[in-house]
Amino acid sequence: MLYKSLYLPDMIKWEEDSLSDKFGRLEITPLERGFGRTLGNALRRVLLSLLEGFAPVSLSIEGAEHQFSTIPGVIQDVTELVLNVKSLIINLQGENKGVIRLNVAGKGEYTAKDFTADKHVKIVNLDQEIAQLDDTGKLSMEITVEKGKGYIPADEWSIHGKEEKAGIVLLDSWFCPVRKVNFQVKSARVGDRTDYDHLIMDISTDGSIDPKEAVNEACAIIIEHLQMIPAGLEPEEKPDHISEEKDSKNDFLSFAVDDTDIPTRIANVLKSAGIQTVSDLIETKSADILKIGGFGPSSLDTVNEVLKKQNLAIDD
Asked: What is d(CA 100, CA 120) in angstroms, rounded to the nearest whole number?
């Protein structure tokens, strides 16, 4: 057979000691020389950009006409509430859409555990802070959650048939449940040869999906595409594609800052301030970034040069 000359892996395992709902280390060995990087790159790209997930897509708050409103008795303004809502990690069990609601009054700090939700909606990070109220405060909000893929900025929801109306705020939505993927390739020995590859992948998720499930989904996507190649496609069977430029941009937004051309020192400073991805970066105002210790105007210029290549920029 054609593949008898290829040495296939005889060890594919997850490191049990570190495996959790949010992190997993996968080892695959031995692989033909160069195939470790081939597999690692393919899986990493798919894990970070093509898996479906769930995210808040719109928010309505009683008494707030737009996201720059303030609500009497609520410490946070609507912009801060939006940021807290966008940090929710949600799983829709068997459905494509769901709604969660918050109705609270009186002094206190309220978190995601105070939401009421449709029965198929599961909030993963129940300790996520939502709002602080004083004695006179009252807050009523409704959040729509949907299933999706990649990153959709608020101003692009119109393409998907949604319009911002008075009292409804459309949100920047990051659906990808995988937060970070790193891999390394080491040498592996087979008999007298030491030039085989040993692939080690570290996969971090948001907890709405575990690393094993994420890798299984990524493999299924890759296999589905590869199986189409030998048979080919008739012209009338060719699927509709989103433009390559837009795919590339959405893919880049999900990258960790240290996986871009941003210098390592600057990337480490950003990560220490909680800015993990390119999406986090462009959503942070330049004035706030300049307040980070060790990050000055020259660092900002360097970062913007990298973002400019993708037609992106840090918000002024």
From this structure: 10
Q: What is the dihedral of CA 30, 34, 35, 41, to 10 degrees?
A: 130
* Cβ-proximal residues to 96 (8 Å cutoff; 6+ apart), any chain: 146, 147
User: 249 in a domain, yes or no?
Assistant: no
The strand pairing partners of 29, in sequence order, are 11
Task: State the total domains in the chain.
Answer: 3
Give the containing element (helix H, strand E) for 245.
Answer: helix 244-253
Whether 142 and 124 have beta carbons less than 8 Å apart is answered as: no
Q: What pLDDT is stored for residue 3 in this prediction? A: 47
* Pair 43, 62 in one domain: no
Structural domain includes residue 30: yes
Same domain flag for 225 and 115: no
- As a whole number, mean pLDDT of residues 144-165 equals 80
Output the furthest CA–CA distance in the chain (Å, rounded). Answer: 77
Per the rule left: phi > 0, alpha: psi between -120 and 50, beta: everything else, 175 is alpha
pTM of structure:
0.68
First to last CA, the chain: 60
Domain boundary among 150, 174, 198: 174
Q: Quick one: pLDDT at residue 230?
A: 83
- Mark whether 131 and 219 lie in a shared domain: no
Whether residue 170 sits in one domain with residue 130: yes
Bridge partners of 198, per DSSP, are 186
Query: CB of 100 within 8 A of CB of 115?
Result: yes
Angle formed at CA 90 by CA 182 and CA 137, multiple of 5 degrees: 125
CATH code for position 118? 2.170.120.12
